Amino acid sequence: MSLSPALRAALRAFTENERILVLTDFDGVLSDLIDNPHDSRMREGSRVALTALSQLPLTEVGIVTGRPLADILEVGMPPQDVLVVASHGLEFLQTSPGDDIYRPTARDTEILDALKAFLTPLAEAVPGAWLEIKPAGIAVQTRLCESQAGIQLLAIVHELPEHLASLTIRGGKDVLEFSVSSATKGTALTFLAELKQTGNILFMGDDVTDEDAFAALPPTGIGIKVGPGETLATHRIADTTEVTKVLELMVALRTPDEPVA
Ligand SMILES: O=P(O)(O)OC[C@H]1O[C@H](O[C@H]2O[C@H](CO)[C@@H](O)[C@H](O)[C@H]2O)[C@H](O)[C@@H](O)[C@@H]1O
């Protein structure tokens, strides 16, 4: 499918701004959703377009992901000059003076150990379920579970005991994450907007946590939801192949003498 005329017009107007900030989620947007997160890679077309975009003048590009920073650097292999916000807005790279890598405090470690003790037997009881240990939290992954068993497990772990009640809970695609951090992709977007001194921001995302970023977009921003589901975004595209088309169109529109397909 080609991009809708309304989205093409919005992208044309957006790229005419002098300075722009293009931000995108990783899983389900730059990469297809697959069973093993360690095997995820950016679609090649999106990698090429993202790299080209990041090298254009007055064009800032960033990846905003729920993955830990070390993980996205290894799996996502972000091109040079691309800003990275990881752990749902907790960790930052290339945003100097805002560079920030999370290191747990003694109290965080105590809570995370207690969380692991709570989640481990529950996950072990459900075939296919596994725990993704992150620096600031733990995600219960159920993509490989029988559908009802996965839904049931997430409902059970959602009811945290009293001693873990301070944790932030984030939903996602076949995943529920518990974190000592309450940062969101929305707080990250606002931080980057101030850092880069622009309200001309485009954000693409596919999941529940991306809604925080859509909500934080200024009126001069553009939100693009990838795939189905309720959203605050003003535009929608079908899948990761259309993400590549959006990125390629912005490169063409932003490059003098480049033919626009
Ligand atoms: O914010 P994102 O970049 O979209 O990251 C969200 C989570 O993505 C990963 O999990 C999801 O993708 C996996 C690989 O395709 C899939 O197996 C899993 O079921 C999905 O939930 C990642 O593992 C998480 O840490 C991220 O928070």
The chain-level mean pLDDT equals 95
Small molecules held by this entry: the ligand O=P(O)(O)OC[C@H]1O[C@H](O[C@H]2O[C@H](CO)[C@@H](O)[C@H](O)[C@H]2O)[C@H](O)[C@@H](O)[C@@H]1O
CATH superfamily of the largest domain: HAD superfamily/HAD-like
Number of strands: 11
Proper CATH architecture of the largest domain: 3-Layer(aba) Sandwich
* Ends distance: 13 Å
Question: Could you describe the 3D structure shown?
Answer:
With 261 residues, this protein is α/β, with parallel strands linked by helices. It folds into two domains: 5-102 and 183-254, 3-Layer(aba) Sandwich (Rossmann fold), CATH 3.40.50; 106-179, Trehalose-6-phosphate phosphatase related protein, domain 2 (Alpha-Beta Plaits, 2-Layer Sandwich). It has eight helices and eleven strands. The chain has helices spanning 5-15, 44-54, 69-76, 106-124, 147-158, 185-195, 210-216, 240-254; strands spanning 20-24, 59-64, 83-86, 91-93, 130-134, 137-141, 168-172, 175-179, 201-205, 222-226, 235-237. A seven-stranded mixed β-sheet has the order 4-3-2-1-9-10-11, with helices on both faces. Strands 5-6-8-7 form a four-stranded antiparallel β-sheet, with helices on one face. It starts with a helix and ends in a 7-residue tail after the last helix. The mean pLDDT is 95. Bound molecules: the ligand O=P(O)(O)OC[C@H]1O[C@H](O[C@H]2O[C@H](CO)[C@@H](O)[C@H](O)[C@H]2O)[C@H](O)[C@@H](O)[C@@H]1O. The ligand O=P(O)(O)OC[C@H]1O[C@H](O[C@H]2O[C@H](CO)[C@@H](O)[C@H](O)[C@H]2O)[C@H](O)[C@@H](O)[C@@H]1O binds at residues 25-28, 33-35, 37, 40, 65-67, 132, 139, 141, 143, 172-175, 207, 209. Belongs to the trehalose phosphatase family. Pathway: Glycan biosynthesis; trehalose biosynthesis.
